[in-house]
UniProtKB/TrEMBL annotation:
GO terms for molecular function: kinase activity. It is found in: Cytoplasm. The gene is cmk. The keyword Acyltransferase does not apply. Keywords: ATP-binding, Cytoplasm, Kinase, Nucleotide-binding, Transferase. This is Cytidylate kinase. Belongs to the cytidylate kinase family. Type 1 subfamily.
Length: 222
């Protein structure tokens, strides 16, 4: 079956989805990395997220490839490994604006659906259960408080990037607003999704909860 994990920035979706996929022997697909790759390419080509036509045309020429690696998923942009580059602060600050572009979402959504055609994938993002894979057999909406998500981001890269927890809180809250208010595939919880608040939960506990839910779903389907 397919598992969709949605939620706001910093909720731990990527880490959780990767670990769930490992335990179930499924394929992990990080859709956020795909939007980040497009954002990085736009930055390199000096295309403003506000220039909808130019961004749309550029996206159609971009090649993105996801590949399993020893330490997680590798992301290739036109055959260049950009796994680390797409996590830069410049990309993080612009990715929501790029993701709001209708053509960008259409092109990447088509790629994502093709990757899930054969089933057995764990896909995370912001509109997987509502738009990309509305028929996913298990849908999870993973969330956490803004304060906790900011603390997590700070522990991951805040010191290296020279930002404070307070700055990250403001940026995450703004990104939540942009994701929720965009016209195309906004961030919403699917009606049939199971909500998991990870604010006070260790990652492994979240992972085991989703693995248990998935095994229950599989048993019910037999």
């Amino acid at each position: 079956m397919n598992i969709a994990i949605d939620g706001p920035a910093g909720a731990g979706k990527s880490t959780v989805a990767r670990k769930v996929a490992e335990q179930l022997g499924y394929i992990y697909i990080d859709t956020g990395a795909m939007y980040r790759a497009v954002t990085l390419s736009a930055l390199r080509n000096r295309i403003s997220p506000g220039d909808a036509a130019a961004l749309a045309k550029h996206t159609e020429s971009v090649r993105i490839r996801l590949q399993p690696g020893e330490n997680g998923q590798l992301v290739f942009l036109n055959d260049e490994d950009v796994t680390d580059l797409i996590r830069s602060r410049d990309v993080t600050l612009l990715v929501s604006k790029v993701a709001a572009n209708e053509t960008v979402r259409s092109v990447l959504t088509d790629m994502q659906r093709k990757l899930a055609d054969r089933k057995g994938v764990v896909m995370d993002g912001r509109d997987i259960g509502t738009s990309v894979l509305p028929d996913a057999e298990l849908k999870i909406f993973l969330t956490a408080s803004v304060q906790e998500r900011a603390r997590r981001r700070f522990r991951e890269s805040g010191i290296q990037q020279g930002v404070t927890v307070e700055q990250l809180e403001k940026e995450i809250a703004e990104r939540d607003r942009l994701d929720a208010e965009r016209e195309v595939s906004p961030l919403v919880c699917a009606d049939d999704a199971i909500v998991i608040d990870s604010t006070s939960m260790p990652i492994e506990e979240v992972v085991q909860s989703i693995v248990a839910l998935s095994r229950t779903k599989l048993a019910e389907a037999k």
